């Protein structure tokens, strides 16, 4: 649940990061309220890790500013506002889960009680096990516990479920949700729409270093999970954009391709108009949807640059 007191958890303004000719982050503006759970969703190479690196103060931006609870990232980190779970990180051998989490929590000024961290990360039952003998899912929950140990207000997770099986993912999300329910802010990156849908209350879609959509999981899912209805047109070839559900119209290969969020209604309307031959309905893949969203963002930019709203 978002709370409004004080500066927002995260504020990116005009942030740019360039690596050689690649603009990994290409002008990101993003505000995250306290208490929100936000997914950064995007394909590989979209700029998610770089964005997270900038947020944590690990990557200096070339342009723009970043504030975390009104402070520079390094200050927020030092003040104990920020906890991070990054993609890599080897476990120290021989120590138990309880010893490792206990050791790390002691390095913080105002840590969570050990039993609480273990409970939140669902580690109580395996607290006596050696960390170098855990399954991938258990090890990832230990990393999550380490990110929580200092009782941060904002926890940031970079693709936390990469390489985990379905059950381990489910357990990690359950742990994360329990942390979020305490009123903490959570930001995680993923390239799975399903995870963004079930575990976030807001989804920010990033492609080619830009925010191309920012909405509720249900609306993002609708945008991304749209379908394509294609057919050989008959009669007057206009007005397709007015059909129910249609979000895009293209003509190629002698066919009309309609992107739609409600394929059944689109097809019924086409049938009523008796306007097609050889109809096909196909799902849109995630990559294709990202490309469509990216192009949408470019079209909007061009339109705005020309002084038009649409
Ligand atoms: P994601 O996390 O969405 O997969 P990244 O932020 O890792 O995306 O990468 C965005 C782009 O920036 C990619 O094209 C990647 O190759 C490039 N990039 C990221 N980090 C570096 C770096 N340290 N040096 C050069 N290029 C980088």
From TrEMBL:
The keyword Transit peptide does not apply. Gene3D superfamilies: P-loop containing nucleotide triphosphate hydrolases (3.40.50.300). Residues 10-233 form the ABC transporter domain. It holds the Pfam family ABC_tran. InterPro entries: AAA+_ATPase (IPR003593), ABC_transporter-like_ATP-bd (IPR003439), ABC_transporter-like_CS (IPR017871), ABC_transporter_ATP-binding (IPR050763), P-loop_NTPase (IPR027417). CDD domains: ABC_DR_subfamily_A. SMART domains: AAA (SM00382). It is a peripheral membrane protein. Keywords: Antibiotic resistance, ATP-binding, Nucleotide-binding, Transport. It is found in: Cell membrane. The keyword ATP-binding applies. One of its GO terms (molecular function) is ATP binding. This is ABC transporter ATP-binding protein.
